Amino acid sequence: MVLSPSSPKWPALPDYFHDWALVDVETSGLRPGRDRVLSLAILTLDAQGNQTGEFATLLNPGCDPGPVHIHGLTLDRLAGAPTFDEIAPQVGALLSSRVLVAHNAQFDYDFLAHEFAHARSWVPVGRRLCTLALNRLVGPPTPDLKLGTLAAHYGVLQEKAHDAQDDVRVLSGILRGSLSAAGQLGLALPLLECPPRQDYRPYVPKSPCAYRNPGRLESGEPLVQGMKVAITGDTRISREELIARSVAAGLNIMTSVSGQTSVVVTNDLGTGTVKLKRAEGAGVPLVDEPTYLRLLETVQPGKSKGAARRRAAAETSGDVPCALPASTSAVPVQRTAPPTESAGVEDRPLTGRRVLVLGGTHDEAVEARARAVALGASAAVNLSAGVSDVVVLPGGEADRRMSRVAALGLRVHDAGWLLSPTTPPMSASVQNAVADRPDTAVVLVRGAVLDLSDTGTAWTVAAAWRQQTACDVDVVAFAVDAREQVAGDEDFVFHGAPEHPDGTVRLATDSPTEQAVTVDLERLPLEVHRVVIAAAIDGAATFADVGAIEITAMCGIGAAPTARATLDAATTERTMILAELYRRGAGWRLRAVGQGYDDGLADLARGYGVDVAE
User: Which of 395, 507, 508, 607 could, after both became Cys, cross-link 498 (CB 3.0–4.6 A)?
Assistant: First the structure.
């Protein structure tokens, strides 16, 4: 591994001393479990950054290699390469007892976990570090956080993109530079615990239904393609065969019951299953298996979703107000009003600045952040290279970050500065950093909306909170219909089910204080009117213990942020709706919401129609 002579030194902070295993994989697609690893490279480093081992190989996946135009790995090139089973022991030895490092680490980790599962083993990794998440904390002055961009910033020569062996060499230089920058900021490394799991299973696709749901099955009427069918209890023919015949007939088999379910198939009304109880409460009709099999013989044609989508694209509709789940409490009073369209630069003197608030009570800090945003700044939740000003409220002098603030030469103010902000001279280093920063993200206040111009690429909404947070925060997503209800429990994406079966909504965790929801807007079913993204606090803690949550919206992995918003809940609230992506005519919009509730996650989920067990 050859680094540029100008590369930063390996940091000497004891908390950064780990043995590292840097990993890069090239794959046949983007879905772990469905797609396979085609090429793998590993570079091991000791705690001082010295290389201790290196391994690289092509792999024979036993399947189509996928996007050859990206990775260049044709079937001919892969012919004769070993299978993952053959190299698993060697790979396991390199990963064991080391921190796995990758750029967008969850991707590489999940692919390795599935490959080890195929080999009837598990990935021997206890912790991982994502250099993408680390650099989101650092906030370097780069146009984006893609591997090639960070390589140029940290002085690492990238010779061949999408080549695992070259990418892992580049990653070693990026890790060195990132650790050095993080050390200067005094950041705790975002190491994520990932204890070995043995429950990874191959991806089983859910056959998408091509037809719109025509509604409930009426007595004496036939089934219609697109009807949503749930099956509960024992069946006379195998459940797999019954599902296969239903799908072949154009019906939509659901794993749960909701108000949109057309019919529930059951042979025993007395079983008292959750599905039956829910069907009874929602008035969903029930049929036994023999009746259902007869109805399968005369299924009527349905209306294609494709045609419906084209009609919808040709129509325009008015904006939709933010709707609330049925069981939630009243919305907290909005703390700041969006600036008017006529507000000019003179009315927003902090435009382009990034302000970190330290100290104060929860309400005092909320007020200070709201004031900074109203003046045009973005409010940071952690000390990063992008912070230009620090507001110190009572008690903030004792914050452990103050020594770093002084060393970096940042401008420090008291609360009065936000009432009449002035711009005293910055140190040369800070001035250069601010001048070079190409951050063009729109700062959204609570309730503000933004049109999403490019819906052909998946959008990611990341949520981050301060590193010193002691309690656990879970980010979740609900894909809901026009009635603000999920069509099935699979439309609730959370840590226990981090991906929708069709892959359109995914939850990623690459830091203890950051989680992100990625939504493929183009592939969402037409019935999904919005995707609601929320945060919930585990246990008895409230948002008074967590503080603000910053959301960042971006189009593509590692892309430059399109929009930011910093959201605060009240002192007693335990759940908060952060943002929503919703349909607007033929396009989509992002809304920064910031609505908090005293209820826990279970009550919030029930309000959206999720069947939560007691």
Answer: 507
Residue 607 to residue 598: CA distance in whole angstroms: 13
Does the predicted TM-score (pTM) go above 0.90? no
* Per-residue model confidence as pLDDT tens digits over 291-321: 999 999 999 999 886 543 433 443 333 444 4
Q: Which residue has the higher pLDDT, 394 or 11?
A: 394
Rounded CA separation 534/324 (Å): 12
Q: 77, 57 in Cβ contact below 8 A?
A: no
Domains present along the chain, CATH in parentheses: 14-193 (3.30.420.10), 205-315 (3.40.50.10190), 348-436 (3.40.50.10190), 442-607 (2.60.60.30)
Please give the Cα distance from 440 to 352 (Å, whole number).
8
Q: In this predicted structure, what is the pLDDT of residue 201?
A: 58
- pLDDT of amino acid 115: 93
Instruction: Let me know: does 101 contact 22? Beta carbons within 8 Å.
Output: yes
Percent pLDDT > 70 in the chain is 86
Q: Which residue, 537, 603, 601, is CA-closest to 569?
A: 537
The alpha carbon torsion through 589, 592, 594, 595 (nearest 10 deg) reads: -20
